[in-house]
């Protein structure tokens, strides 16, 4: 049985609202992956498949996190609850950054995002680029203990993720001859470095803002005290 953290807003794991939210999230994320299997694109046979997209990597982390959430809700086992919370430390700010970057670039020029005019239906587009950040943020604010990872830890994690993704898309480019996002092909190496540096900075800011929102909803003083601990407390 998981002992609920005193700052946690609602009971989780539980077979009530927590299970409902996680089940809805898994259903949404799973539908997105099913859509990829029936959507004919140049990525079907490309090196890296759709995992070239940051969107799909973030979606995978979200699906894994919520799958552990469902297991925790059904079994009330602390190990699954802890796994869900650990993965959410990466998945939640990543999905928020994906939403910000995607919709920001979409407003500026959609052609920076789509290869060969690959456009998504509006609801499907929101399922990929908005729903995951909403589900994960709700899970964090309502159903999770506070994050206690320090600012330098968040910055190191964000930088590591940005560099890893940069390496991954360059590896895919070496096999395919094109980038998943057209904007990468318009930039030189230095400009891409600046873009990924900005993404890492945005991920750090996103994590700090999520911690601030958690504090505003669940009790800022208590969350601030928890933040001085080196690890995320999961009971």
TrEMBL record:
<dbReference type="Pfam" id="PF04750">
    <property type="entry name" value="Far-17a_AIG1"/>
</dbReference>
<keyword id="KW-0812">Transmembrane</keyword>
<dbReference type="GO" id="GO:0012505">
    <property type="term" value="C:endomembrane system"/>
</dbReference>
<feature type="transmembrane region" description="Helical">
    <location>
        <begin position="151"/>
        <end position="169"/>
    </location>
</feature>
<feature type="transmembrane region" description="Helical">
    <location>
        <begin position="20"/>
        <end position="39"/>
    </location>
</feature>
<feature type="transmembrane region" description="Helical">
    <location>
        <begin position="86"/>
        <end position="106"/>
    </location>
</feature>
<feature type="transmembrane region" description="Helical">
    <location>
        <begin position="126"/>
        <end position="144"/>
    </location>
</feature>
<dbReference type="GO" id="GO:0016020">
    <property type="term" value="C:membrane"/>
</dbReference>
<protein>
    <submittedName>
        <fullName>FAR-17a/AIG1-like protein</fullName>
    </submittedName>
</protein>
<keyword id="KW-0472">Membrane</keyword>
<feature type="transmembrane region" description="Helical">
    <location>
        <begin position="51"/>
        <end position="74"/>
    </location>
</feature>
<dbReference type="InterPro" id="IPR006838">
    <property type="entry name" value="ADTRP_AIG1"/>
</dbReference>
<keyword id="KW-1133">Transmembrane helix</keyword>
<feature type="transmembrane region" description="Helical">
    <location>
        <begin position="189"/>
        <end position="214"/>
    </location>
</feature>
